[in-house]
């Protein structure tokens, strides 16, 4: 799917963008465009990628004119740009809406106008039954990208969404935080019962690439990934520290979800992933060939997951980070 294609990644200087860029180069892209706001991060990334197929484009997803210019001649777009920190979104709600919702609309309109073939938008488990503004904006974004398939008319542009959980080691995530705070001898724990879905950066990038191959337009792809308990994570990273229970922060859930009962009614299960199908009149059941319908009342939540990482398994995954 990527070979000899022109690919653009919004938010391309982030953890995902860097990993995806490296993978795309290995798979033989014709050109990959890193689209982001921060010129310093682009400068730093340019030192790591000495390849003339990598191009850097300063721009903001809030700026539709800039997107129109950037999308010219692009075959595939991976939309990873977002305001993603829960606290920052709660304190700056209008800014979160401008980036995560208005930015999504700009991506959609620019992609259709420019004749982009396929667009995958990255989502989050926090978009499922959201309790904070970040999750609410990403849910709105997901809905926009799914509905965008009805706006394409005679054009071949297709939009789909990938939704997964916490990414180990990504900037601002719990792993680098625990790694840093363990030097003080005390690690703050919000709640001992807290669980989260867990995915590595490599797995996330590969799932996006696989979803590009599978998509028909309108799906939300959800990988089957393990859960972890916050105490197991803390003991794996900071085994010799004291643990201080500080309580759940505003806008935070005890457990995360990726598929709830209402979505499960039109979701099909495959061996390693789920597909939440769109409710389009033109959607064909043949698109889900090989998939299995889910039982009534099914939900996919981090506390009821059948796949768990214990402390030893976490250490294997975290070996290069701890």
List keywords for this structure.
alpha/beta; globular; 10-stranded mixed sheet; single chain; 3-stranded mixed sheet; 322 residues; Rossmann fold; 11 helices; 35% helix
Q: What's the number of domains?
A: 1
- Rg over alpha carbons: 20 Å
User: What percent of residues adopt helix (DSSP H or I)?
Assistant: 25-40%
Span from first to last CA?
35 Å
Return the CATH topology: Rossmann fold
Q: Provide the succession of SSEs.
A: EHEHEHEHHEHEEHEEHEEHEEHEEEEH
Biggest beta sheet summary: 10 strands, mixed
Give an overview in words.
- The protein is an alpha/beta fold and 322 residues long.
- The chain has a single domain, classed as Rossmann fold (3-Layer(aba) Sandwich).
- 35% of the residues lie in helices and 20% in strands.
- The protein has eleven helices and 17 strands.
- It has helices at residues 15-26, 39-48, 64-70, 86-91, 93-114, 133-147, 174-181, 201-214, 230-237, 261-264, 311-318, and strands at residues 6-10, 31-36, 54-58, 76-79, 118-122, 158-162, 166-167, 186-189, 195-199, 220-223, 227-229, 242-245, 257-259, 267-269, 273-276, 292-293, 300-301.
- The strands form four sheets. Strands 3-2-1-4-5-6-10-15-14-16 form a ten-stranded mixed sheet, sandwiched between helices. A three-stranded mixed sheet has the order 7-9-11. A two-stranded parallel sheet has the order 8-12.
- The chain is globular and about 60 Å long.
- The mean pLDDT is 93.
């Amino acid at each position: 799917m990527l070979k000899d294609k022109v690919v653009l990644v919004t938010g391309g200087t982030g953890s995902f963008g860097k990993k995806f860029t490296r993978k795309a180069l290995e798979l033989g892209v014709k050109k990959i465009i890193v689209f982001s706001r921060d010129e310093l991060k682009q400068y730093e990334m340019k030192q790591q990628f000495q390849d003339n197929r990598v191009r850097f484009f300063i721009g903001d997803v809030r700026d539709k004119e800039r997107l129109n210019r950037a999308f010219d001649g692009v075959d595939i777009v991976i939309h990873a740009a977002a305001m993603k920190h829960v606290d920052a979104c709660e304190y700056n709600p209008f800014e979160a809406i401008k980036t995560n919702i208005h930015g999504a609309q700009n991506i959609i309109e620019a992609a259709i106008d420019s004749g982009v073939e396929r667009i995958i938008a990255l989502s989050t488990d926090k978009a499922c039954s959201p309790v904070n503004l970040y999750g609410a904006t990403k849910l709105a974004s997901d809905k926009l990208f799914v509905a965008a398939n009805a706006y394409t008319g005679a054009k071949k542009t297709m939009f789909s969404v990938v939704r997964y959980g916490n990414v180990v080691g990504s900037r601002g995530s719990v792993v680098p935080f625990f790694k840093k705070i363990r030097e003080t001898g005390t690690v703050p724990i919000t709640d001992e019962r807290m669980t989260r879905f867990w995915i590595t950066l490599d797995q996330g990038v590969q799932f996006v690439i696989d979803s590009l191959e599978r998509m028909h337009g309108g799906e939300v792809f959800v990988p089957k990934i393990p859960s972890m308990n916050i105490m197991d994570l803390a003991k794996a990273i900071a085994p010799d520290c004291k643990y201080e229970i500080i309580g759940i922060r505003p806008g935070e859930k005890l457990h995360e979800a990726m598929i709830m009962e209402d979505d499960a009614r039109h979701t099909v299960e495959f061996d390693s992933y789920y597909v939440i199908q769109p409710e389009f009149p033109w959607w064909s059941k043949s698109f889900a060939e090989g998939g299995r319908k889910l039982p009534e009342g099914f939900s996919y939540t981090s506390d009821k997951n059948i796949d768990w990482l214990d402390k030893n398994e976490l250490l294997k995954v975290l070996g290069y980070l701890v």
